[in-house]
Amino acid sequence: MQASSFRDCQAWRAEGLALSSSSNEACRLYDAILTQYVKWRNDETLGGFAGCFSAMHAADPNFVMGHVITTGLELVATTSSTRLDKRLASAVKRTVELANSQDISPREKLHVQAMELFSRGDFPRACDVWEDILVDHPTDMLALKFAHDALFYMGAQVPMRDSVARVLPHWKPHMPLSSYLKGMYSFGLMETRFYDQAEKVAMEGLALTPDDGWAVHSVAHVCEMRAEMDKGLKFMESREKDWQVCDILASHNYWHWALYYIEKGQYEAALQIYDSEVFRRCKATGSMLDTVDATSMLYRLEMEGVGVKERWRELLQVTQPHTDDHVTVFNDLHFLMASLGAADAGVSARLVDGLQELAKEPGENQQHQLAGRVGVFMCEAMTQYDRGDYGRAVELLYPLRYRIVDIGGSDAQRDVFNQLLIHATLKSEDKHHQKLGRCLLAERDAVRPNSALTDRLMQKVRALHA
Fold it and tell me: Can you list the pairs that 305-314 forms with residues at least 24 positions away whose Cβ atoms lie under 8 Å?
């Protein structure tokens, strides 16, 4: 696809989404970046994200929405914190200054405001601003995607679903990227347990756009939540050629594939995917999505009794540089998995101490507020479990179990903490905890019948407490 096929100044105006730039090239490159973001892929024919970023800034250095999209994408990637990364902080500042020095539209001003709020960790207010944009401009894909990501980071499942539902009637089939709304809406339906509808909508999206990696990913979730592992394996394999091109999401889709194997107790097959796809990509990209998937996978395997010690040490090389970031609690918990797994007590202590400090005076940073309510206690529970104090781990985790959703991520990603709580109850010497473990397994079986993993844990209960 060539940059010339993207929307120029006039095309954006015609759609009611005028951009304050007189450079057709800059407007086309903005569209090219947006398209890659929606498709979860670096399009090499365009020079990927990096190539488009520099070409767009060269075409119009003062293009406000150009700065909004490049800086915004870096922020939602959560790979660095404006608190520590001076370059990123100054990129936010420059965008705000450019916006204040130009006559830009009210919509563009709101975009700048939302990006700045997000950069300060005020995710809820940033989402409010993006949603305000969508009331007047329901086809503003950048506002929709940024809101989708930020709501996901807050575990705001119903708002994430409804954010897409509200704009759907305004999107027509001829509009660029319209088919991708199916995958986005499907994901919201899936996270709010409308599994049949989620699968139907995702498959409609895939009929229109077979290489929509996000729609594939939504179906992968449905199979996971219903414990339909064989169906999931078949589905992922049959469409691998299609979704593999989505390089930003590919590792995550392989992670889903590997989870089916873990569920079935086929650990070698899972480790093969970890080595050849998940860790390889995570090491190459440093992407947060790839990194948390790698840590979560090893943590699950370790709970299942699989030895992964050497792999933890390799993975710590990727997570350690992020020890002081504290952009999201979700990321922090996964970094802690790596430092505990690699038995690096110094890194673990530094991470938890840093989070505790920020939680004392969180200001408007929603993630640091959350750390004080949930994150710090979860870190402590993981640390106690690692030390073998399973009873204490249960006491810390059990009261939080319905608030863990607030750390964001998907039900499938957060399930690692449900499993941790169950393992802690089974290993605790407290008889009440052991009974609680049975209750949690009965509950798990009711929500996700025919799960091989649940069956294995139930057998463990019978063997342990016969």
Answer: 306/267, 306/271, 308/271, 308/341, 309/341, 309/342, 311/274, 311/279, 312/338, 312/341, 312/342, 312/343, 313/342, 314/279, 314/283
